[in-house]
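Page 42, continued from yesterday. The earlier attempt failed because a stray header line got pasted into the input along with the sequence. Redoing it now with the clean sequence only.
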Amino acid sequence: MAKLDEKIGFIGGGNMAFAIGSGLINRGIVKAGQVMASGPHLHNLERWRTLGGNVTDDNAELVEKSDIIFICVKPHMLEPCCSQLKSTYSPTSRDKDKLFVSVLAGVTLTSLEQHFGFIKGLKMIRAMPNTPMQIGEGCSVYSSGSCATQHDLEKVHLMLNALGLAQQVPEAMIDSIAAVQGCGPAFIFTVIEALADGGVKQGVPRQMALQFASQAVLGAAKTVLVTGKHPAVLRDEVSSPGSATICGVYELEKGQIRATLNNAVEAAAKKNVELGMKYS
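This time it went through. Structure tokens are written below.
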């Protein structure tokens, strides 16, 4: 697997940043010493130290020392983060070689390029990953800003694709896709919990029920990906006439599981758009 020599920085060391950073280290894409995370409270970055990474409470220091900078703050922190960075960062001739990657939900490339306009020759890529990246099973989409090069896109693809599935898409699609792959894991965690609870209700020990529910979801997902068959076809293959499976599927349909999941995706997509409008 290809490796990167660049130093990788994360402005904001929260869960998404840690999923990407720890994933890159665990997969051998970078060494721990190449990684730095910043945050206002160093004690919140202890897990980065445990990984062998570097930490700082100075965003300007992180930008200065990093070649690829992931912006991982919450959308409402974009304005204060940029204002603070603008007042403390000293531009250098190396700025044109730095690559910024935003994972801020809803915030457009146009807005990002405006906020970070004090960086000369700013190269920005907007990405939306998800937290399963930390175990190498992530799903990411990304779009290019006006100054990012093909080489920059290849670097981002290398990092994100090494941690799962990654694909470049038109920016107009990101908010909708993010509602599926970005929010989707949380929806499926709820499904796994509900399946396990159903098992417990039927007398299965909780830990066993959780383990089997999780493996059932994992196996079902991999079957779709490996066989290429439509989920409806796979469902019909195991729903024999009068079987336990078809009885259970009938109850799911009665409970409007399709409409509920559709509505969840729609609500998440709308929220992404609202965030972009609010913080642009």
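Notes: The longest strand covers residues 138-144.
Reminder to self: strip header lines before submitting.
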